[in-house]
């Protein structure tokens, strides 16, 4: 068997890839391609939760309730056993995993090696697939994801430690190549013009040996971005209704992010031009080495790896949320919750034969 492990990076179409493979899991088995279920229904977050250093306690560890070294070790052993059993039972020649947290949360060589050991009972033939997005675009998109995950801080250029762990692609690639070998790294630039029909899903499919995806189901496109107004609303909302409460996911948040996405149609966030220039300049030398080592060329103009940095169309700097905008967004959330209550009442009506009023109240 051959393993393909897609590690992101984040904000490079990972959700689209994962939804496609989840939706076509059974059909792909006929092509001898197994998209793992043991590691997660869609996003294989379990990998990062299992492989991180035992002392780490982040949101992934909270989600899986891994609050002690013993629980972490048991989780690792169980995951490795489940993966090996899954591979043996399905008899496919290829096994595919996708989890962008593998690139963002596994920040040391020892953590990467831990994950590779979890997979080694299946096979030693492991190919790592990674897409690289220009760091400034990655930074701006990451802030939106962080706020969706409960972050309450303002948008700013990260310091040295975070730059090293999340945005330095040379260090990222070195961690993984040292674990599996340089020849087992498939590195691509995340740019639509470089993909078949501009489709990152089709590009990834070709990497794993699936020549065409025309006959497979495609997931519905979802607008996951938040504009600067809904993003600032959610940041403030997080200070009152946090994502985690008592070290567990907070059920009172409901589907606040999904409801906000429905009215998010304005500009997305960015930083001041001077801050972006400084941030990209920080990675110039390491980007040049990545360009030479993995692509065999250095861009003659602009960034050595990504070329000229154009205007960030559709983006603007964050600003304070006006009272009027906050009320409008709050009203939308209220309507969304009322729609949900009405739908639930109608379902109860069908089950019990009781009528429901226009206000969504079951009548006696």
Explain the layout of strands and helices:
Elements: E1 2-6, H1 14-23, H2 25-29, E2 33-35, H3 46-51, H4 59-63, H5 69-90, E3 94-98, H6 101-104, H7 109-119, E4 126-132, H8 135-148, H9 160-167, H10 169-180, E5 185-189, H11 200-207, H12 228-240, E6 244-245, E7 248-249, H13 256-261, E8 268-270, H14 273-282, H15 284-295, E9 315-317, H16 323-352
Helix pairs in contact: 7-10
What can you tell me about this protein's structure?
The chain has 364 residues and is α/β, with parallel strands linked by helices. 48% of the residues lie in helices and 10% in strands. It is built from 16 helices and nine strands. The chain has helices spanning 14-23, 25-29, 46-51, 59-63, 69-90, 101-104, 109-119, 135-148, 160-167, 169-180, 200-207, 228-240, 256-261, 273-282, 284-295, 323-352, and strands at 2-6, 33-35, 94-98, 126-132, 185-189, 244-245, 248-249, 268-270, 315-317. Strands 2-3-1-4-5 form a five-stranded parallel β-sheet. Strands 6-7 form a two-stranded antiparallel sheet. It has a two-stranded parallel sheet with strand order 8-9. A hairpin with a 2-residue loop joins β6 and β7 (248-249). It is globular, with a radius of gyration of 22 Å. The protein starts with a strand and ends in a 12-residue tail after the last helix.
């Amino acid at each position: 068997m051959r393993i393909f492990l897609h590690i992101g990076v984040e904000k490079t179409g990972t959700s689209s890839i994962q939804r496609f493979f989840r939706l076509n899991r059974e059909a792909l088995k006929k092509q001898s391609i197994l998209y793992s279920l043991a590691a997660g229904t869609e996003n294989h977050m379990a990998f990062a939760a299992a492989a991180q250093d035992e002392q780490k306690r982040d949101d992934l560890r909270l989600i899986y309730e891994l609050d002690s070294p013993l629980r972490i070790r048991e989780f690792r052993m169980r995951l490795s056993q489940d993966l090996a059993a899954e591979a043996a039972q399905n008899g496919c020649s290829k096994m595919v995993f996708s989890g962008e947290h593998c690139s963002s949360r596994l920040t040391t060589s020892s953590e990467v090696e831990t994950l590779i050991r979890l997979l080694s009972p299946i096979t030693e033939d492991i190919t790592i697939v990674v897409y690289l997005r220009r760091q400034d675009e990655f930074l701006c998109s990451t802030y939106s994801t962080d706020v969706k995950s409960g972050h309450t801080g303002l948008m700013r250029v990260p310091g040295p430690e975070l730059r090293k762990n999340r945005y330095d692609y040379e260090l990222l690639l070195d961690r993984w190549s040292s674990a599996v070998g340089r020849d087992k790294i498939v590195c691509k630039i995340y740019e639509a013009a470089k993909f078949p029909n501009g489709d990152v899903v089709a590009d990834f499919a070709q990497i794993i040996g699936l020549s065409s995806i025309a006959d497979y189901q495609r997931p519905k496109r979802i607008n996951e971005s938040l504009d600067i107004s809904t993003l600032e609303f959610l940041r403030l909302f997080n200070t009152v209704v946090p994502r985690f409460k008592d070290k567990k996911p907070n059920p009172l948040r409901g589907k606040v992010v999904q409801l906000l996405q429905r009215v998010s149609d304005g500009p997305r966030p960015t930083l001041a031009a001077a801050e972006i220039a400084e941030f990209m300049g920080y990675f110039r030398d390491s980007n040049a080495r990545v360009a030479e080592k993995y692509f065999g060329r250095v861009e003659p103009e602009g960034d050595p790896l990504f070329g000229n940095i154009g205007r960030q169309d559709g983006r603007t700097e964050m600003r304070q949320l006006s009272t009027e905008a906050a009320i409008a967004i709050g009203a939308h959330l209220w309507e969304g919750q009322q729609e949900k209550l009405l739908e639930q009442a109608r379902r109860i009506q069908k089950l019990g034969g009781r009528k429901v009023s226009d206000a969504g109240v079951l009548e006696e």
